[in-house]
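Researcher: Last one for today. Full complex below.
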Amino acid sequence: MLAHLPILQVIVPLLAAPTCLILRKPSLVWLFTLLASASAFVISILLLQQVMAEGTLIYELGGWSAPWGIEYRIDKLNAFLALIISGVSTVVLLAAHTSLEKEIPQDRQTLFYILYLLSLTGMLGIVTTGDAFNVFVFLEISSLSAYALIALGKDRRALWASFQYLIMGTIGATFILIGIGLMYQMTGTLNMADLASRLPEVPQSRTLFTAYAFFIVGVCLKLALFPLHLWLPNAYAYAPSIVTAFFAATSTKVAIYLLIRFTFSVFGVEFSFSVLPLETLFLALGLLGIFVASTTAIYQNNVKHVFAYSSVAQIGYMIVGFSMATSAGLTATLLHLFNHALMKSALFLALGAVVYRIGSAELNDFRGLGRQMPLTMTAIVIGGLSLIGIPLTVGFVSKWVLVVAAIENGWWPVAALILLGSLLAVVYVWRIVETAYFKTPEPGRKPVKEAPITFLAPVWILVSANIYFGIDTRLSVEVAQAAAESLFGVSP
Amino acid sequence: MNFLSINSLFPNLALEVQLQLCILLPLLAIPGIIATRRSPNIRDAISLCTSLLVLSLVFSLYLALDRGEIIAAHWWQILPGLDIKFSLEPLGMIFALIASFLWFVTTLYAMGYMRGHNEENQTRFFCCFAVAISCVMGVAFAGNLLTLFIFYEVLTLSTYPLVTHAGTEKAKQGGRVYLGILLSTSIVFFLFAIIFTWVIAGTLDFTPGGVFGETEDTIILSVILVLFIFGIGKAAIMPFHRWLPAAMVAPTPVSALLHAVAVVKAGVFTVLKVCVFIFGIDLLEELASTQALLYLAGATVLLASLIAMRQDNLKARLAYSTVGQLGYVTIGALLASSLGVIGGSMHIAMHAFGKITLFFCAGAILVAAHKSKVSEMSGLGRQMPITMAAFFIASLSIIGVPPAGGTWSKWYLLLGSMDAQQWSIMIILLLSSLLNIAYLLPIPIKAFFSDDKQSSSHAGMKEAPLPCLIAISISTLGCLLLFVFPEPLHELAMSILDQPLNDNSLEHNSLGQITNGE
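Model: Here's the assembly. Have a good evening.
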């Protein structure tokens, strides 16, 4: 059983998806989905323990050894990612049943859970597989289900948002496919480890650069790197709240994983950062992303938009860490990946609770919520503080590690810019705080009650995680550090 | 609250536990405060008991420190090499003693004030107050910069609801300036300086003599010093002083405790701590930026006093006066002489007593006479003799003349500036005393001696509520007693520079000597 964990990680949610069709009744389906996601979570915990103790796990699918067969390769990096994805998915699902009541008609709820599970399968598949083409397959599984999930949003603008994402996402996926195709053409292999050993032998031809360029641009589209982020804000704002909470924490992270995996493991640091001007490029785009997106976030009137733009900015921080091409920088990126997943899932889920009660996420409707929904608003405030990077929250730990990495790298102006960027977060978070606590609600509006416990419990689990991992960083920092070091050591 | 039994348990309570209890007790009181929100008497009694308990704990720690015991506690590690830990040394002791004592007095005062003024949300008020005090204790006992920074930031956040207590548009604006300046300076400058220090020195522990090696580039260290001084926005060095007057929208007890004692003193305390235990005064003397920052602090002192003269609102006048007085402590730290450090740390105490009394009086006048403007206060002395007399004595302490405690700290600051041969700073200090006279003394003088026609309108007015008067009397008495018995405080201040911090630093020192010997 334990030996099969790598494949079970993917197969459990994959098989659970069609099973939902048999169950039909939404509440049953919800419980079943929760169960499937929770078991995926347990599997990822076991996998991480195994990997930390024994090193990389290799699982040959159907007993066919690589490079002929498909192999699943679990190292510290992807075990860490799988843990984030399945963990957030499980906690977010706790609130799904309540949230869907208000947002999705009864007859489509089963469909929702099926799509959700498929999306989860896709993401877990991307991170666990060791085969480049398999990556593309899972990418399509997760993306297609994502388009449909976003389109389920009750606002009709969700359709347009989904369509926008469909176009951009498909371009991205096509680019990735072209990149993988070119790699295959040059080396005759699709296995990542095999690719890594063969690519250096290939002369540095134009094909190699083209392959890399296509792949990177495609991935950057998926990870919403500024200025390729245009699909993200609307997709996050109009999707059902649960979907936003899940995607904000995971989907862009998966793309960052691909970026890291292919840059460091497959192509190698040597090629990526010495031959190509990747350092300057990513540093500039990352910093621009931080400032442009944070500034845009300040001017949004829909709170979901505010946090969506903030996500683009936070991706900027991860990319800055990535661009350093040092072990410390990569640790910062991975750590922030984990921490940002906690912040954004908490924030968007809390927003889901607000939407559940008042039916909108417009900033104007937040007036007076500080009194009417004290626990939910406190959660948003703590999530916001974490986003700013106040000590005792995860945001502080990320910021600390990132700034230390920048200074150690001799980039002290970058360090200053990173800190300046977090001031912009103060502005957009405080707009929400002031509206909720200092303004009185419109006279006509009925007072609303606090969100139901089914919402508050998962929100506060995530908020507590924000504080817990801000105080006890052993898990997150150790794993991130180990993963980063292994990427700089030997390729998988 | 079984206060008595715990008190008798003190000998059995390990000193480390007492230290941590000082930080945790105010937090533990919060559930009690919330649970008893329906009966204000019990709620306020809980606050009062907790503050007494914390005060006695701090005092017992003081006695232990006096015996020469080393008290330290370690909580946990946040990142490798970065711990949350506490260790007690004389400077922190001074701060903790003052803050815990004045917390008790202010709680007494707040009970009278908040009820007399019919303020809303009193429960929230007392909760945030407790969090703030817990943070102050954390700042005072912090064993390294990271711990200090954490409590420093939480202090900013926990006082935000206190500043914006009224919930009005004006309170919101004030809160915005307050949070905006304090958060941005601490994130952009202070945190940057801390991380820089961490990368260069490899440690953030407060170490006697400083953490930087002798080989470090003095230009970089100069930059770090500038970042520290600007980053510690709570010390209100110009141009980052605007938050202090903005925070005056808060209810008076908040202004009294937080903006005469807790928040601002946390700022200057941090400045002193950084100067003495991160840089070390020997290194400080060599840095190019020290001189420039000294002049900046001097300019802050003068400008703030000049602005204070033009304020008609009493609280605004006191706020600018505070900005100026904080400059004294920063000057004391930057003089880079032991006398300056003694003067600066004594001034933390002296100014705290003087300024809190002044704020108490301002609040008492507001509650009893509903007056907040200086120009309306002539002739008030007849109706409120106790308040106005207290105002007079506290003013003397701020100015620095006998028979009030402020005399001593000013004395040492002047000695320090002579010792460091900073003649211009000495002149600034003297000038500032004159300015203090000009903006403070006219208030009680007019209150007692003016034959203004307005005084008839004061008829029928009474003194402030009794708890307020008791609080005012205690703090005024403090001002006077500190003049007569400054010795314990002076001894503490003297021992700041010659006391090793804890075991680790001792080891560190001896190791350093060994390597030097080789």
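The two ends of chain B are 58 Å apart (CA to CA). The interface with chain A takes residues 76, 78-80, 82, 149-150, 153-154, 157, 164, 167, 169, 171-172, 176, 179-180, 183-184, 187-188, 191-192, 195-196, 198-199 of chain B (CB under 8 Å).
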